[in-house]
Input
Amino acid sequence: MGGVDRFDQRRERYAIGMRSIKWWHRLLYFLIDLAIVNGFIKWNCNNGGQRDQLSFRPACSHYAAHIRPRDKKEGQTRVSHKKQAERQRGT
Output
């Protein structure tokens, strides 16, 4: 029972746990929490426990979404795809 209690403690601290009438929504949220907590435990075992769960969760979601945080360079602006294509054509 010790392992179940520790999982519940880790899951409840930062649980997604949104309320829902549909049973499969609650199951989905539980499985997402389960995957995050298991990933956090495995990551801490491999890396010597350098990160807490609060900072692990956003890093995990950034990795899952293939978003890499990077420093913004001064003067850099976003260019639409049309404008970028026009620049490449030289018009």
